[in-house]
């Protein structure tokens, strides 16, 4: 018993069928189908499953005598050898594949239809019957005798599943091409056209759809005629006369490739030129048609073609015709002689073939790769049948194999052959047992491969990092502007009364506070982790020490105004400097101990998120971190208490109320920082820390210096000794 499965059909030109038999068909006969013996030339390859191909290697044939001494007419369709090569290329790929039809080899047998539809169908039936003689009526349309997967049959009639239930194709139906041609004609504003079609299903159905669409678009047909290349000369002559007598200058065609050649030959004999031709995919990009257009009948023709495509490796395969030669048949000999215009058995001084000629030296329809879209259709057709066979041959199973990214789960109470497939958990891959990915990796969406986890940290390139950087640099610039104002007006009473030396030191430390926030941005490294926390701790202590010194100066200065008081000698400029140095050295000592015992270090946090790595700085010693932060808080609270006690001192000395506000803001920021820092995920914890640094720095800058700058720049009348003394006397 044999099973005939269709593979490919060329519209009126070529067929490819699949034959699956219990035993391999094998024959070395070189035969030609005809009404007398029903045979054609063939070449073949071994295989467990046989693919049969029917191609038009000759456009015509002659009846041979029973001794089979004569040959078919000279080889004309070298382009069909490309279709044969495309079929062989797909078969070779499938045979070398471990996924598609594993352990099964595909063979092939190709026949020459000699350009005759009944002989093409007879070849297909011969494949099914093991080369037994079969004949089909010549009235049967080529692509309708046996339904197929077609690479070039575009007739819309083949979409009728009631008539052709097993017909499939890898090329769009003419239904779309016909409508596209009408749209194309309308686009150029051509409303008065002629129409010529091949008198078969391809031409008649295609032109019918075009006519219907053209009428809807307001396009009129002056004439619509049909013919076929086997018509008598009188029929072609009548069409030539119709064209010559017409007034329309645009001709829309639905014509087969061999028929358009017949038509332009007739037109050239009557010197009919100067018409705009609109064509279909059958001939519009055909190299043989271009070669026959010697009288420029079709110059400027436009039309619809098959979309561009490329099959990797097929061009190199085309140039290697050894697979064809290996079958050792007469057809290859004819092909080689036609390709190089030579003969192996040369007579009458004809060029002699050696068999070693180089294909790269010739330019013809076989070496022309413009048919790549059609070759791609052949390629896809063979693969379609291979996939169908793959499913048919699947040697009965309880459960389908698990797809990659899933694992087997045995069904309760059933044998081990019965199981369900469940997706692997996140971070796991494989198809048998799910395997955990390495720590630095994570499973992709399909759970079939481990991919490197993305790393996350606050960078300068992202919006948040850029905004924080801008805020830091803006704060630094503002601090420098304030320092310049204080330097320029350093001899004015308001600057001198507010301890200018500590003010400049405070401005310097504030600029460092703004800049130290930049160390928290970027990919953490060993040095950046140590620098960011140490710089933060020391600069803020320096800043708070200056504020504390200014607060003590305010208190001491008020007591110095009381009769008999000499407290200022105990807290003069030297003592102020020493106090700032002493407070700062304590923080330096804490930082040194922290760095010595257990310093901060870069750390890959893989626990917070399973699918990504958070690059952050681990504290090393938590005691060291909280000691640094606690010491800053202690100085801030002390400064706040002293400033609060001194808030009602006379205005000319009174920085205390501004210090109170600044310390209030400072303490509020850092008290809210702790819970926000602990609860923020990933890089947002770093963002919270930077925000706290910038907020507290801006608070100090605005509360302590902006009011003074306002008076210096906008209220200069208040920046005088007389004004300050009068205000003091008023308060007293």
Automatic annotation (TrEMBL):
Record localization: Cell membrane
Which SUPFAM superfamilies does the record cross-reference, listed alphabetically?
Periplasmic binding protein-like I (SSF53822)
One GO CC annotation, please?
Answer: plasma membrane
Q: Which InterPro entries did the record assign?
A: ANF_lig-bd_rcpt, GPCR_3, GPCR_3_C, GPCR_3_Ca_sens_rcpt-rel, GPCR_3_CS, GPCR_3_vmron_rcpt_2, Peripla_BP_I
- What is this entry's stated membrane topology? Multi-pass membrane protein
Pfam families per the record? 7tm_3, ANF_receptor
Q: Which PROSITE patterns match?
A: G_PROTEIN_RECEP_F3_3, G_PROTEIN_RECEP_F3_4
Q: What keywords does the record list, in alphabetical order?
A: Cell membrane, G-protein coupled receptor, Glycoprotein, Membrane, Receptor, Signal, Transducer, Transmembrane, Transmembrane helix
Spell out the family assignment given in the record's similarity comment: Belongs to the G-protein coupled receptor 3 family.
Query: PANTHER family in the record, alphabetically?
Result: C-FAMILY ODORANT RECEPTOR OLFCD2-RELATED, CALCIUM-SENSING RECEPTOR-RELATED
Quote the protein name from its UniProt record: Olfactory receptor C family, j1
